[in-house]
Amino acid sequence: MENKGRLHQQFYRNGPSHRDGADVSFQDIRKLFNFATITVGRWVTAEEQQIAANLFFDALYDLVAILNVNEQVLSLNGSLSLAFGSGGQKHASAHYNSAKRQLALAKNAGAGALAHEWFHAFDHYIAPRMFDNVPPGSFATQAWLDNANMNDHPLNQKLSDCFSLLFLNDQKRPNEYFVRSVEADRALKMYYYAMPQEMAARAFEACIQDHEIKNAFLVQGTKKSTEARLGIYPHGNLRATLNQALMLYFYQLGVAISHKQT
Question: Which of 57, 115, 135, 174 is deepest in the core (most CB within 10 A)?
Answer without folding.
Answer: 115
